[in-house]
Structures are given as C-alpha cells and as structure tokens.
Amino acid sequence: MNSVPDYFGSLVFDDRAMKAKLPFGVYDSLRKTIDEGANLNTDVANAVADAMKDWAVEHGATHFTHWFQPLTGITAEKHDSFIAPSPDGGVIMEFSGKNLIQGEPDASSFPSGGLRATFEARGYTAWDPTSYAFIKDKTLCIPTAFCSYGGEALDKKTPLLRSMQALNKQAMRIMRLFGNTDVKCVRTCVGPEQEYFLIDKDMYEQRKDLVFCGRTLFGAKPPKGQELDDHYFGAIKPRVAAYMAELDEELWRLGILAKTEHNEVAPSQHELAPIYTTTNIATDHNQLTMEIMQKVASKHGLVCLLHEKPFAGVNGSGKHNNWSIATDTGVNLLTPGETPHENAQFLLFLVAVIQAVDDYQDLLRLSVATASNDHRLGANEAPPAIISSFLGKQLSQVLEHIEESTKDDLVSLSGKQGMKPDIPQIPELMIDNTDRNRTSPFAFTGNRFEFRAVGSEANCASAMIALNSALAEQLTEFKKDVDELMEKGEPKISAILDVIRKYIKICKPIHFDGNGYSDEWKAEAKKRGLDCETSVPLIFDNYLKPESIRMFESVNVMTRKELEARNEVKWETYTKKIQIEARVLGDLAMNHIIPVATQYQTDLIDNVYKMKDLFPAEKAAKLSAKNLELIEEIADRTTFIKEHVDAMIEARKVANKIESERDKAIAYHDNIVPMMEEIRYHIDKLELIVDNQMWTLPKYREMLFIR
Questions:
Q1: Which residue, 154, 173, 197, sits at the end of a domain?
Q2: Which helix (H) or strand (E) holds 451?
C-alpha cells in the first residue's frame, strides 16, 4: 500500500499536477491569476482546460461539474460527460476553456430571496482558480462562484472572495505603514474543527425525526449520559476507529489536511480538526469534508449527524473556526513578535480585530444564527449567545497599560534621529502563555482567534464574511486616523500608538475574560450595551441596519439588494425548518406515540379488571393502585398531546397566511416552537412509563452508545 505522502492530494489538480501538466508559460500565467488576481486570457484557459481534462481522465474521471455553494448551505453540482461524437461514429473526450471558466445552472431553482423570479432561470457559475479542482466519484469538480444573470451573488463563495479581497487591500496599507515592502498579499486563514455524532444506521432509519429534521424531536434522557466525563478523549471504539481511518484516507486523497480526531464530550460525539489553510480553500474543504463524512459513515453501517443539537440533554456540536491573518511571506500577523516594532504591529491588528468585533457583534451573532444552532448556543455547554472576546491575563494587562499610559511612557525620543520604534513598556509577548476560556465565543488562543459559536452544519463562509468585512472596514478607519495625526505633525509610531490607545478604550465593552455562562455576565453584558437578543428571526434584522449596509457596501462585499435577499432566505429557511419539525412531531405524536401509549394503557386496564376477578376488592384495589395512577397519567398526557397538536396545527395555519417572511418567522418562533417543547415534555414522560417492548422507536440509551 502506498504511504500517505504518496497518495495525499492524488485526486487534486494542485500545484504539483499543474507543474507536471502545463507548459511553463501557461503555468506561470495561471499562478499569477491565483496569487495576484491577474486576468486569464482565452489561450491560457484552453491550455489549462485541456491539461486538466487529460489529468482527470488519467485518474478515471468521465464527467465534469461546476461545484458551487448556493444559499441552501450545502453544495450543488450538475454533471456533464467529457464525451463528444467523433466522425467515425465513436466518441472523443473534450473539455474547453469555455467549459472550465463558465457554466449555466438554473438560478431560479435555488433560494434567491427575490433576486430571481421563477421565470428568470438563467444564472452563471464562474471558475474560482484559487481553489483547486478535484475528482469525486469519477467527476472532475471545479470550485466556482454562482451569480445571477444580473451579476448578484447567489452563493456563499462570491461574498467570501470579496471579503478576502477587501481585507487584503486594507491590510496591505497597514503593512506599508509599518515600512514592509516585501509582502504582496495578506490572507485570512481558517482551521474549522468539525464536531459530529455517529449513530447506528438501522436505528437512524427508525427515527423519522432524525431522517427528516436531523435531530430528535423527543427522547428521554438515558440513565447515563456524559455525567462521568468519560467520553472526552476516551478510547475510540473499533467500529468508530475503522470509520475514522477510512475517512482520513478519503480526505487525504482530496488534499484535505485532516489532522486531529478524538471522542468529544457527549457519548457517540466526535471531532475532526484540520490544519489551517486560506479561508476560501478551508471553506471548500469543510463543505467537502461534511459530505465525505456522511458518505463514509454509510459504508460502516453508521450515520453521521451534523445537526447542532441532535440529542437534548447532552452537548451539541459546533464548528470552531480558528481564524488568523497571514502574509504571503509566511508571517502570522496575530503572532506576538520578538521586537517592540513587531509587537506594535501585532497589537495594531489585535486591537483592530477586537474593535471590529465590538462594532459588528450583531453581524457576528447573525452569521451563526440558525434554527438548529439556536438549540446549542447559550446552553452552558457551548459559547454564550452574547458575543464577547477573551484575551487572557497577559494581553489584557498590556492593553490596560497602554490605555493608561502617555506617549512619553511608550516611546523614546532619540534626538535628531526622530522617533524610534522603541516601546519599553511593552513586555515580550509569548504565545499560549495564558489559560483558555471555553465559555468565550471569540477567544484569542495565542496566535489566532477561535470563533466558537459557528454551528456544526454551517457553511464557514457566513461567519468569515462578517469577520473579514468588519476588519477590513476597521483597518480603513485605523489608517485614516493615523494619517490624520501624521498630517498634524505627529511622528508615525506615536500616531500609531495613539490610535491603538483610542480603540482600546472604545472596544472595552466587548472584552470579557470571565465566565460567559454565568447569569452575572448576562446582566453585565446588558449593562455594557452588548447585543443580547435571543430571537433568531429578530437577530436576522441586523443585516438590514443602516450601519451594516453601509459597511458591506463600503468594502464592496455585498450590496443592499444582496443583503435584503439573504435576509429573505434566512427568514424563509427558518420558517420551513420549524414547519417540517412541527409536521413530523405532530405525525409521530398522533400515529405512534398516542397509539402505543393507549395500547399500554389498555393492557393496564385489563390487568386491573383481572385483579378484581382474582383478589378480594380491598386487596385488588391495593395491588392495582399503581396501575390506576399510570392509567390516569397516560390519559392526561395523551389528552394534552392531542389537544396541543391540534392547537399547533391551527397556529401553523394562522402563521402560514402571513405574507411577510419576517413576520411569519417571528410567529413560528414565538408561537409554534414553545408548543413543540410542551408536547415534547409529555412525550418524554410517556417514554419513561410505557412498556419498553411496545415503544419501538429507538431510545437515547440505545442510539448514543454504539456497539
């Protein structure tokens, strides 16, 4: 068997494949397109397409597809074969530059938020050369952006690429400010930790709530869950280990840097973490990872659950996005330096990030808000729903010192030499010299920020678009403020430190190093004026705030029209997810739960009557007392369930008549969701008393412990 280095990336048309297959001039031109954004002419595109096709066919590919990421949150693909008729009646394998650069899927069949009418079908996919093509299931997959006939973004990738470009532009201005002329590009990088559950496929198929909704709509807690803390980093069971081994191999062949895997906190919960890479590629890789995880699980008789909260009462699943900023020369701008000058640069970017989070905390909260992630956030097992930033003891002290210091404390003058970048009051800063805070949704962890609020089934792009865009604007403001001070005669280093001090003071409310789970913090956050909204449909409003629209438009990431469209999609998606859950819950309640409970009740009633025939009245009454209690309890609970299912149906009918997608989503959140929770409570109580032989739906105690 080949070693991992031999087959790693073997199904990717990466730099190694391009060097081997492309003429030097073509390769050089393509690299300039990838690295510098240079235009790709037709001749080069045709040469790349021909080489890409030959490579793909050599690896067994018969089809190609433009692989894109519509606003559904998952990926989409339409396959075309390479075959074309030849004069002799056979076929030849063809693939042109035109096929590579542009495709044309039906744009009206995907969520568009009103950007496309049903009769306006045309949309375009455009090749993204910065993300390598790969082979999946004998198909050459070409990562692409997706836009409407009018040019509006209909996907996750387009705004992400725009946000990376915006951040690069402003970060480069800062690099020049510090006198760095070697750097040609600044990129954001992400390593998304992927949490997930594995359960037996046979049990999964018996739970229609899992099949249709991705989560259990009812289920009593097992007698043992995660109370003993014996799952986290525990020994991996052979069946799971076999799954992980095959998953690694599949991912490595696709060039995905799967690195770390372990058991998570909850039973049957696991994590896969990659080595970080550029945000665009990391996002593509994560979308592909989730698909491969589910495909490989099926081979092992398992199902991979990516829902943020598939089981109540145990930890939910997130996708911690480890985010950093790096230059093309290999320097992480969020790594403390070895000199005062380097640390001044580090502190500038650090403070700029915190200020961006403070300014646009509502957008970061929006970026992770979904119907499914709502079950996880703020549950004392995951990051709080309130956005705050953790820095640790050392950095907090440094920022506090800078805030309280004067210019004379921070810089030294050296006669005619002018301002020296000597900052004696800033100590040497060490990586990972402070404890981590697992209750912080946005924590600094030595050389990166960990955005822990992202949901496990989410597309990473949403969170990264908000973060990149906010930071791009903040760097713009920072540079403007420094320039203004320098125009007034302030030396450069002094001006930079002045602006750093200014923003340290402004962003203090978002900085919190304590326990984010505590009730005291919730009260304190409200006092600080932080965004404490909990209603997901109302959180979506943040896209349409004037300051949000102004920011996204100023950095050329999204227009008002594109933001309005995304909001429509978010409200509609929220409503539909709750609709489906309510229907499934109602169906299971009426067609399974109540009939099973009633049958058990009938058996109990039969037992009571037989007791009367068998024993004297007094003794029979004594022996039947518990059964009588159960008979009454079942009657009360089934009646409650029936009445509330009927009421929920009527409430849905009322909500469905609401024309506004926003108001409809609010109605579902405020009225339908609480009803579902009430119904669930009584179903879970019935599960605990109904004969186990009769309760045919797999229970938590069965699903959560893989054998």
A1: 154
A2: strand 449-451
